[in-house]
Amino acid sequence: MWDDRTDAILDGDLTAALAYVTPAGGAVVTPVAPIGLRDRQANVVTFTTSLGFGRKLDRIRNDPSVALAYHAREHGFADGDDYVLVQGRATVDERADGDRLDAEVRPAAARFMGPPKTGVFWDRWLQAYYQDRVPVDVAVERVVRWPDLRCAGEPSVVGEAPAESPAPQSPPKNGTGPRVDVDRAAERLRALPHVLLGFRGGDGLPVVVPVEVGDAGADGIELRATPGLLPAGGRRAGVLAHSYRAKLIGLATRQHTGWLEVDGGRAIYAPHTEQGFKAPANKTVLLLANGFMARRGLKKAQRQKAA
Fold first, then answer.
1. What's the whole-model pTM score?
2. Which pLDDT tens digit goes with each residue over 225-247?
3. pLDDT in tens, 256-295
4. Any idea what the Cα angle at residue 283 is, between residues 280 and 288, rounded to 5°?
5. How far is it, in rounded angstroms, from Cα 290 to Cα 66?
6. Which of 28, 69, 183, 184 has a CA positioned 20 to 30 A from the CA of residue 5?
7. Cα gap 234→229, rounded to integer Å
């Protein structure tokens, strides 16, 4: 069971970075809002996601190894400079019904986001948005807390002993070099305040650490991290850069999958894929967009289930 200091962060951080593994042994890092959902006695933390993100849910079902990095203090209730990495095995609550959402998720969301909009139009428009959510429960196996948001200093560990540094991976058949515009990718990453790198650890559980973006060149983007965080050699890895405002109104993300090469302390990241989005900074516009995306995602999930 984690301590009170860690629990305050799990309770109070508005956002966290979720990492899950890919079939090829890489990792995808994406932002989530855990909104304080956790059961300390049961060693479980929870986040919710959209049924419309079927690929993410399929990946978690196929390999439940996940990590949540609590890496930022803005617009939440926690304070201090601790960086908390939670690692464990996830279970998608496929049978979650309105009772659990009403009892747990919506009150927790209101604490961070404020009361939901109601009325004849909003009740109908956001119905799919609320039905679209599924809880994902993470059975915690290890909690690592550093006293610094850069993961500097000596970490404390609760749970299983830290895994050994992962061995280098075999390079992909079609090469390790960049497959997207490196200069543009680096510029977009630098424009966002939080940049994190995720990779599969030595025990199969993902690891997520903060990095800084350096120079870009023909072989990729230089990433800087606190010494000792990045394992030597080459491996598949994911990068997330993001920003957010109070109540998550106004979000921006950039995500990559690619190849990380660490040699003598120098880390070069070659991005292979990229995606991103920027959400409106206006709450009304954001809710309209959320309702539309949820309707589309819910219909897509229903079609896939019927097939």
1. 0.92
2. 999 999 999 999 999 999 999 98
3. 999 999 998 899 999 999 999 888 777 777 777 777 767 7
4. 80
5. 26
6. 28
7. 14
Instruction: In whole angstroms, give the CA distance from residue 171 to residue 132.
Output: 38
pLDDT band (50, 70, 90) for residue 54: confident
Determine the length of the chain: 307
**Are the beta carbons of 60 and 136 closer than 8 angstroms?**
yes
Distance in angstroms (rounded) separating the CA atoms of residues 196 and 200: 14
Of the candidates 165, 228, 236, which has an alpha carbon nearest to the alpha carbon of residue 197? 236
Q: Which domains, from first to last, does the chain contain? A: 4-306 (2.30.110.10)
Closest CA to 260 of 213, 212, 220, 218: 220
Cα distance between residue 78 and residue 290, in whole Å = 27
Three-state DSSP class for 44?
Answer: strand
pLDDT score for 306:
61
Angstrom CA distances, 301 to 51, 57, 198, 275, stand at: 6, 11, 27, 21
**pLDDT value at 53 more than 90:** no
